[in-house]
Structure to design on (201 residues):
């Protein structure tokens, strides 16, 4: 019996901000996409997601790696602003919340979560939040899923998890969690999958 619905954030509840930001920075400031992606996908960026370094430490490091005419603080703001709330997904979340525990399950950055919550006030809709920066592990590591199960006090087959990537969700699938892959703009398809599971009428 399904008791909880877990949501990824980037690419599900929000647009996938890295892609949006890199495109905008290239168009607006002529920043090289490969240079920016090298920074945003670096080992140091992973350390930031794992909560091993602070945001200020990361951006100070980034500024030292970038060409002199690049501004790390501009990239920082555009990266966070690239995550735009998916209102259709939020409405679905609210609908599901009437009958299920709602969980945030995300590899994320503490500063960005705080920034987006201040902007959108989204955290109040979650009954439980599991973030990589709190536990120093991330998707698709199975250890991250174990934390989800421990903190939710649920078994894998009692959870449905929405992600935008089969790769990042494979750690959850290993524990019998039902994975639903959401692609941008396909909210009706996702609702159809919920109906098949008997979760939506």
């Amino acid at each position: 019996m399904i008791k909880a619905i877990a949501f990824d954030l980037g690419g599900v509840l929000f647009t996938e901000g890295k892609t949006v930001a890199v495109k905008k920075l290239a168009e607006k400031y002529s920043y090289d996409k490969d240079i920016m992606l090298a920074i945003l996908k670096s080992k140091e960026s992973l350390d930031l997601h794992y909560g091993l370094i602070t945001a200020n430490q990361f951006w100070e490091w980034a500024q030292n790696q970038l060409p002199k005419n690049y501004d790390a603080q501009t990239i920082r703001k555009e990266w966070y602003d690239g995550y735009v709330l998916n209102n259709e997904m939020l409405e679905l979340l609210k609908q599901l919340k009437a009958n299920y525990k709602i969980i945030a399950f995300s590899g994320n950055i503490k500063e960005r979560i705080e920034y987006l919550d201040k902007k959108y006030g989204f955290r109040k809709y979650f009954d439980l939040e599991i973030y990589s920066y709190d536990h120093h592990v991330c998707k698709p590591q199975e250890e991250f899923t174990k934390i989800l199960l421990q903190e939710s006090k649920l078994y894998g087959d009692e959870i449905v998890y929405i992600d935008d990537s089969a790769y990042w969700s494979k750690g959850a699938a290993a524990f019998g969690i039902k994975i639903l892959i959401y692609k941008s703009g396909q909210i009706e398809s996702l609702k159809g999958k919920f109906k098949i599971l008997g979760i939506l009428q």
Q: What stands out?
A: The first strand starts at residue 4 and ends at 7. The chain has eleven helices and five strands. Residues 55 and 76 are 9 Å apart (CA to CA). The chain has a mean pLDDT of 96.
